[in-house]
Amino acid sequence: xxxxxxxxxxxxxxxxxxxxxxxxxxxxxxxxxxxxxxxxxxxxxxxxxxxxxxxxxxxxxxxxxxx
Length: 67
Description:
mainly alpha
């Protein structure tokens, strides 16, 4: 059974997009007031570092709407 070949350009693009989303999430965490975040800043910083998908989770779940 052959392993599928991962194309380096596709992998590089995925890594770059992930780094961009994580960087934007960190910047938003820094600028957003405490009442605009669900959970603690420390939790979200660690979550974003631990797993690339967690930066997307921050955008979907971790932010509160500021009115």
